[in-house]
Design a protein that fits this description.
148 residues, alpha+beta, 2 domains, five-stranded mixed beta sheet, elongated
């Protein structure tokens, strides 16, 4: 009789490896297959999310059950989140220690910077918009940075 292990998704690391936690044992594993469950290659990682993969899990006598996971952002969405965060950071610096020097802005121009932020923000689906920035905050950056 095969032993059953139920895996709960934790996150995807910077190398695009899915990280799973066994509900029964509490052990954390990294899937190095990059196929996302189709044919998992689970490795223990010192029970640390940042840990290096060490020992493979022999699944020949194990029935793996993967709990359904939340939808993950696409690579394009990840890039857009990072880009929007970069643009926001530029605005904060511009308004603070940057002394309103437009050369510190990614776009090199206040109006273009704000327009890029609006476009990125509006391209996210309603349920995927970032929690750390609202459209109203972008409008406030526009009010502070662009003389209308």
């Amino acid at each position: 009789m095969k032993k059953t292990m139920t895996m709960e998704f934790l996150m995807t690391d910077n190398f695009d490896n899915d990280i799973w936690k066994c509900i029964e044992t509490g052990v954390i594993y990294k899937d190095l297959s990059l196929t996302h469950i189709n044919k998992p290659e689970l490795y223990s990682c010192g029970n640390e999310i940042d840990g290096d993969p060490c020992y493979p899990l022999d699944i020949s006598n194990i029935e793996l059950i993967f709990k359904e996971r939340e939808p993950q952002p696409t690579p394009e969405e990840k890039f857009n989140y990072m880009m929007l965060s970069r643009l926001k950071s530029d605005c904060d610096y511009y308004l603070g220690n940057g002394n309103r020097y437009k050369g510190c802005l990614w776009a090199g121009d206040e109006r273009e910077q704000i327009n890029e932020m609006k476009e990125l923000y509006n391209n996210f689906k309603e349920d995927a918009k970032p929690e750390w920035l609202t459209y109203e905050q972008i409008l406030e950056y526009e009010r502070l940075m662009v003389i209308l």
